[in-house]
Amino acid sequence: MKLLNTLTRIVPLFLQFILNIGLILVGLTLVAFLIREAYMIFNNLFISDTVTSFYDMTEDILIFFLYFEFIALIIKYFRSGYHFPLRYFIYIGITAIVRLIIVDHTDALATLILSGAILLLVIALYLANTKLLKRE
C-alpha cells in the first residue's frame, strides 16, 4: 500500500517533468525556425535581387505568425499552471485556415467551406470566452 501511494505520487511528477523537457525542446526548435523564417523574409524584402511574389511573401509571413503562436502557446502553458488554454488552439486554427485560403484559393467551394470553418472557430472562441467556460 505504501509503495502504491509512492508510485501514484512519483509517476505523475516524472511524466510532467518529461513533458516539460519535451515542450522546452519543441519551443527551442520553434524559436530556431522563427529566426530562420524572419531571416528569409528580411532577405527577400531587402537583400535578395530576385522578385518574390506577393503570395509567397504572404505565405512566409503567415508561417512566421504560426511559429510565433505556437511559441506563445508553450509560454502560456508554463505560466498558466501546466495547461493549454483552449482559445490559443482556436487562434492557431483560424490562422492556419486563413493561411490555407491565401495559399490555395483556386476552388471557390473549398474556400467557402474553409470560411465556414473559420466562422465555426470564431463562434467556438466566443463560447470559450464566456464566463461559463472561462477558467482563467
How would you describe this structure to a colleague?
By secondary structure, the chain is mainly alpha-helical. 82% of the residues lie in helices and 0% in strands. It is built from four helices and no strands. The chain has helices at residues 2-47, 54-79, 86-103, 108-128. The relative contact order is 0.08. The mean pLDDT is 87.
What is the topology?
Blueprint: H1 2-47, H2 54-79, H3 86-103, H4 108-128
Mean pLDDT: 87
- Classify the secondary structure makeup into a structural class: mainly alpha
Tell me the Rg in angstroms.
20 Å
Beta-strand residue percentage: under 5%
Counting DSSP E segments of at least 2 residues, the number of strands comes to 0
Give the helix proportion (percent range).
over 70%
Query: What is the 3D form?
Result: flat
Q: How many angstroms does the end-to-end distance come to?
A: 37 Å
Uncertain residue segments: none
> Helix and strand string, N-terminal first?
HHHH
Quickly count the helices: 4
Sheet having the most strands: none
Concise account of the structure shown:
This protein has 136 residues and is mainly α. The chain is built from four helices and no strands.
